[in-house]
């Protein structure tokens, strides 16, 4: 195992053990608020400490340690830190210092509440205010879930502080780590919670393997991109895949997303910080993208990757202004009120750059349902916007076993064909879930890039072919599936049938003979009973 692999394995083991700290008091999905919130608190504390220590060490003061500085002296760098980092933390409010005094702090919950308020308050009136506002709102430090009394709650908070503080996240050399420790810890925690939270956790979470596939498709042929956008960004992991695929500095103007679930919106912003994305390099908005989109001034986007909610309800025809919305009006019809899937698709197409690519996870029904959705598909196809349709395996996502698909959109295609890939059998079993392996992702990407027919795996259909199929885009209608039925030797089967018939006739003859003998014996006994034979 490599150093990074060993470090990651140890990190995951330690994170798993944290679950025992709150087990029985804060269960499942609620548990993540405390662990992720404290992980974020530790990260920004160590980030600002490392930054200031490094600056002073380079200036010649090798003994400087910001954590040991008095608060009054530290105030001198407040303004510059808010400008550069987006926030400011007094030395006494740093994670390490609060943790060191936690055991003896009878008012620990109030101390933490004050610290979190101070951190958020440091950004008020600055460019980073929207990035910090409300990030700690979900940490209810007086929740009875932590304990019935203040003493019990504080005892639990001490355990969480120590558990997070004991994680090996490269504290001795914050900037020199073999893995993206904080980001990796966050993703592992989110995977763990989503796996155990059922639908409530899975509805916002896109598995890393699916995120990687979407990002590789959307960034294919590019060494760097301008902006990445996700209109239903959830916890932000899909947005951040561009860093892993292209490199940290290859998304020039940053990451843009919108999320209407407040808790998840906070988690997304925390995720950005934990992956060392500075506040001025992301813009995550809160609200309903379909009704109140927040990035009109930032579009178009070169890369769009998204896993929007499946067949969720929206206003649709109930809102008469939507049919005139430039995002939806080109199709001449709105997505059904009970199924907003293609409303998200139209929104993304509208905000896609001329040279961009959108890779979207879709509910399979959008490929074949009639009515309004068929009319929207017709618009997308006749406008030559659909580049590819990829059928994914079932049971990839937490909380649902549905076999989803990917629709790839482009605005500058060179022909009117559509590539179809049947990847429904490309997966490995991991626990109770299916998962795309690196080989599976490579096979799908190879088919996407080559754009050639491969028996039982990929096909290329012209617009005319799709027209003849009433604009249905189900992959099975274009890629012939393998015939998994057992092949039958008709001649051998006929011989078996003949043998069975012959054997049946033989048995029937034997049975008739037995019946005849039995009948004869019965006749004899009848005569003996009447005294006619001795």
Helix content: 40-55%
How is the quaternary structure best described? single chain
* Envelope shape: globular
**Rg calc:** 32 Å
Average of the residue pLDDT scores: 87
**What pattern of helices and strands is seen along the backbone?**
HHHHHHHHHHHEHEHEEHEHEEEEEHEHH
Give a nutshell description of this structure.
This protein is α/β, with parallel strands linked by helices. It has 18 helices and eleven strands. Helix 12 links the parallel strand 1 and strand 2.
How does this structure look, described?
This protein has 534 residues and is an alpha/beta fold. The chain has helices at residues 3-22, 28-58, 71-74, 78-84, 95-102, 108-121, 129-132, 150-165, 181-197, 199-202, 208-218, 237-246, 262-274, 341-350, 372-382, 438-450, 463-468, 490-529, and strands at 228-230, 255-259, 282-286, 301-306, 352-362, 386-391, 405-410, 418-422, 428-430, 433-435, 458-461. The protein has a nine-stranded mixed β-sheet with strand order 3-2-1-4-5-7-6-8-11. A two-stranded antiparallel sheet has the order 9-10. α12 links the parallel β1 (228-230) and β2 (255-259). α2 crosses α8 (150-165) and α2 (28-58) runs parallel beside α13 (262-274). The radius of gyration is 32 Å and the shape is globular. The N and C termini lie far apart (96 Å).
């Amino acid at each position: 195992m490599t150093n990074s692999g060993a470090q990651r394995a140890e990190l995951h083991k330690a994170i798993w053990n944290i679950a025992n700290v709150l087990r029985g008091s804060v269960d499942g999905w609620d548990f993540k608020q405390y662990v992720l919130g404290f992980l974020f608190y530790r990260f920004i504390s160590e980030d600002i400490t490392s930054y200031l220590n490094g600056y002073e060490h380079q200036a010649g003061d090798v003994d400087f340690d910001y954590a040991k500085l008095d608060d009054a002296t530290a105030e001198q760098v407040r303004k510059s830190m808010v400008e550069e980092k987006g926030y400011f933390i007094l030395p006494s409010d740093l994670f390490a210092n609060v943790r060191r005094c936690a055991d003896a702090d009878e008012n620990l919950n109030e101390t933490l509440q004050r610290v979190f308020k101070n951190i958020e308050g440091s950004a008020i009136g600055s460019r980073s205010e929207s990035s910090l506002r409300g990030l700690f709102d979900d940490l209810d430090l007086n929740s009875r879930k932590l304990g019935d009394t203040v003493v019990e709650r504080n005892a639990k908070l001490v355990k969480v502080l120590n558990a997070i503080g004991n994680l090996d996240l490269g504290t001795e050399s914050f900037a020199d780590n073999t893995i993206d420790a904080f980001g990796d810890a966050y993703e592992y925690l989110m995977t763990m919670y989503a796996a155990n939270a059922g639908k409530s956790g899975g509805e916002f979470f896109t598995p890393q393997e699916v995120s990687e596939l979407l990002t590789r498709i959307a960034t294919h042929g590019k060494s760097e991109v301008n902006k990445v956008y996700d209109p239903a960004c959830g916890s932000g992991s899909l947005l951040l895949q561009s860093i892993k695929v292209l490199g940290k500095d290859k998304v020039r103007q940053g990451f843009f997303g919108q999320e209407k679930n407040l808790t998840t919106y906070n988690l997304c912003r925390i995720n950005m910080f934990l992956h060392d994305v500075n506040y001025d390099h992301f813009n995550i908005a809160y609200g309903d993208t379909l009704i109140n989109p927040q990035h009109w001034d930032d579009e178009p986007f070169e890369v769009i990757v998204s896993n929007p909610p499946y067949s969720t309800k929206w206003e649709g025809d109930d809102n008469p202004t939507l049919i005139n919305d430039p995002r939806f009006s080109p199709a001449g019809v709105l997505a059904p009120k009970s199924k907003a899937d293609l409303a998200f698709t139209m929104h993304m197409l509208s905000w896609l750059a001329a040279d961009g690519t959108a890779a979207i996870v879709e509910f399979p029904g959008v490929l074949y349902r009639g009515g309004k959705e068929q009319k929207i598909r017709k618009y997308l196809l006749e406008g030559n916007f659909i580049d590819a349709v990829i059928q994914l395996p079932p049971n990839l996502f937490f909380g649902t076993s549905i076999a989803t698909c990917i629709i790839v959109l482009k605005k500058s295609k060179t022909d009117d064909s559509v590539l179809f890939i049947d990847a429904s059998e490309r997966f490995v079993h991991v626990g109770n879930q299916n998962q795309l392996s690196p080989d599976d992702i490579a096979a799908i990407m190879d088919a996407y890039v080559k754009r050639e027919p491969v028996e039982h795996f990929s096909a290329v259909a012209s617009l005319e072919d799709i027209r003849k199929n009433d604009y249905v885009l189900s992959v099975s209608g274009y890629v012939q599936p393998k015939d998994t039925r057992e092949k039958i030797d008709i001649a051998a089967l006929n011989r078996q049938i003949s043998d069975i018939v012959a054997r049946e006739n033989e048995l029937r003859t034997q049975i008739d003979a037995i019946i005849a003998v039995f009948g004869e014996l019965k006749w004899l006994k009848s005569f003996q009973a009447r005294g006619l034979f001795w």
